[in-house]
Structures
1.
Amino acid sequence: MSIELYRDDHHVCIAFENLVYGSDIQANQFLVVHDGHAALIDPGGDLTYSALSLELGKLIRIKDLDLILASHQDPDVIASLEKWLMYTDCQIAISELWSRFLPHLIPGYNERLVRNRIIAIPDRGMDIALGDSVIRALPAHFLHSEGNFSFYDPVSKILFSGDIGASMVPGGCREPVQDFSAHVRNMQGFHERYMNANRVCRLWVGMVRELDLEMIIPQHGCPFAGEEVIGQFLDWFENLQCGVDLMTQKNYSLG
Ligand SMILES: [Fe+2]
Ligand SMILES: [Fe+2]
């Protein structure tokens, strides 16, 4: 089942939130279509491929997919790469830190699939063309992956934030967060362990505050929509102690 996040005559954004079977980790996948040009964001692994390609086939001609945008290198983001490369003509955009590792996802006999189809995103980020529009890859390094990007769509004003803002909500989340303080418990543990340090949380929030935003939607769990809840989320993330901030000798002991 898909959720329409945005639509005008030229531009559509869709979320898929219930296609992962066989894992405890719910995940969202996203489709942005601009004047017939299509980008899939964080399509996931083999668990998701069949259901996602079926849903996608109802919306676009799969063969015509232009782009896969991968926020980082994790299995729930991009492990199905071989199939997408095989059944579409898409290019794959991922951090330059991970682009050289992508061939490891492709068996040697299919090595030709990945040749000349990788867009290596530099650390500073880049605008990735989608027809006559762009998707902006914005630095989100160490949140959690070392080479990590959030994707901003300037038409819908949606920020696809990858694992940032992820919440563990069994069965997914069709509606934006209403009660932010009650929602924090769904995010706290995940962010404390998977995010690297408060310093990078603050840097990312400083950048994101400059965007014109309607929605922030993570790869897992519920979106944040509207000025008030987005503001609450940014305030929370900016002040979060996480990762190495919380590590002590106890976490590195032999017994
Ligand atoms: Fe991840
Ligand atoms: Fe993830």
2.
Amino acid sequence: MSINCGKSTIVLDSAAMFAGIELSYGIFYTTEGVLSEVLDINSRMRLEFAIASGKIAVITPPRDYVAIVKSVARELGVLRELSNVDIEVLALASYVKKACGSSILYTDDRLVQDVAIALGIEVRGVKYIEKNRLSSYSYRCRSCGLRSSFPGTCPRCGTTLELEVSR
Ligand SMILES: [Zn+2]
């Protein structure tokens, strides 16, 4: 399967899969890693069907895009919090953006959303609640103590903000 910009620029993560986004009109891209996270039998059967009928295209993002995602995540101070699947799906969204000029990533994961936005990818939530994820977090400047809900550099002193996690 390859990217067909005329048909779709939408990438789905596992939350989007559980929410059944692929049942809506159109075709969607995802990765092997995302599929491997979908274990319940009903979702799996639905996905097998969607893949067989060409509604879901499973694409492995090129290594360069994985490297770009890792470097952006590192700059944002969130690399260690991202799973390999998170990185893979971000790399795919980044690859689609490069190929098509834009891409949309469906995910409810705040960290994935933050990195996607930094990569210029459009983000949509799917309102699936993942219970084992971080409950709340913010970004904090180590030099001046400023707190922010967004990653990046400190608006006061320019230092890279660090992720602060509370469970
Ligand atoms: Zn600061």
